[in-house]
Write a structure and sequence with these properties.
The chain has about 300 residues and is an alpha/beta fold. About 25% of the residues lie in helices and about 30% in strands. The protein has 9 helices and 17 strands. α5 links the parallel β11 and β12. α3 crosses α4 and α3 packs across α8.
Length: about 300
């Protein structure tokens, strides 16, 4: 089968197209023919060796945590899936090896697989697992945002931030979306009220919410929560995916939870959540896709079309 691998740590230049044997399936695994794979910063950080001291790596590695595809076969311990089912999967593991999504076929633990939202294309669905889980677990689990509350999302036009404002809206909350002015029109389409990030952000927020927001969700880091502390009411709840250990903030790290992922896919099929795809590349141009992704110039998910 066609795949893209890396045999040493590094940037896009270490990626190489190759042929690999078809993966084996165990009793509780699902063989998936991958139609699309999403790019994430966590993937590229691992590829660069950022977690070499914490994660066992066995080269060659097939990168890619987020996929959408079609079930080829399911083990007897995975009766909820059948050949032909359209699925998504979040393939993060504690060990890095030849099991990622930049390949025509992948064998996935049944616990990482969910049915694909019916209303999404494969490219859109491939951008959902990591960003969707992170946003849901931040807005719902960590911050417990409720109807009638106001949530400020930093980095709201990004993959996680854009889903977070939609989840807040679906829960009956008001979403204030911090992002660059060029993305404000897009943020309005998500039902958010945009403000410009950077200097003057607190003043902009307080003009919209004089008493301050009830909660803040940070996807940017670099002191963003501290710099915008004045935008929150006394006792405002804080969470961050980008600055572990920020004072007063709950750290959010996505973990695979089938209940949470099912809740996210249900929002999609209810017409309350969408994923914006910014660019699509073929599998053999994975290195080019990573370079484009690294610039930060693409608004929306960068996805590999695997066929």
């Amino acid at each position: 089968m066609r795949a893209v691998v890396y045999r040493r740590y590094g940037g896009p230049d270490v990626l190489e197209p190759t042929e690999l044997p078809e993966p084996k399936t165990h009793v509780d695994s699902v063989l998936i023919r991958v139609r699309a794979a999403g790019l994430n910063r966590a993937d590229t950080a691992l590829q660069a060796g950022a977690l070499d001291g914490a994660v066992e790596t066995y080269f060659p590695v097939v990168p890619g945590w987020d996929i959408a595809g079609v079930v080829e076969r399911a083990g007897p311990g995975a009766p909820e899936f059948a050949p032909g089912d359209e699925v998504i999967a979040y393939l993060r593991g504690e060990v890095q090896r030849a099991h990622g999504g930049f390949a025509e076929l992948v064998s996935a633990d049944v616990r990482t697989v969910a049915h694909k939202p019916r209303t999404m294309s494969f490219a859109e669905a491939a951008g959902l697992p990591l960003a969707g889980l992170t946003a849901y677990q931040g807005v719902v689990r960590a911050l417990a945002v409720r109807r009638g509350e106001t949530l400020l999302v930093h980095g709201a036009s990004g993959g996680v931030g854009s889903i977070a404002v939609q989840i807040a809206g679906a829960r009956g909350a008001r979403a204030i979306a911090a992002g660059s002015p060029g993305n404000h029109a897009y943020l309005r389409t998500l039902g958010a009220e945009p403000v410009a990030h950077g200097a003057g952000l607190t003043e902009q927020v307080l003009r919209l919410v004089p008493a301050g927001v009830d909660a803040m969700f940070d996807t940017v880091g670099a002191g963003t929560l501290a710099a915008s502390a004045g935008a929150g009411r006394p006792g405002a709840r804080l969470a961050s995916v980008a600055e572990p250990g920020a004072s007063g903030s709950i750290d959010v790290f996505a973990r695979m939870d089938r209940e949470d992922l099912a809740a996210v896919t249900a929002l999609v099929d209810a017409g309350l959540l969408s994923v914006r795809v910014g660019a699509v590349f073929p599998l053999d141009r994975a290195a080019e896709a990573q370079r484009a992704f690294a610039t930060g110039d693409i608004t929306g998910k960068v996805v590999l079309d695997i066929g």
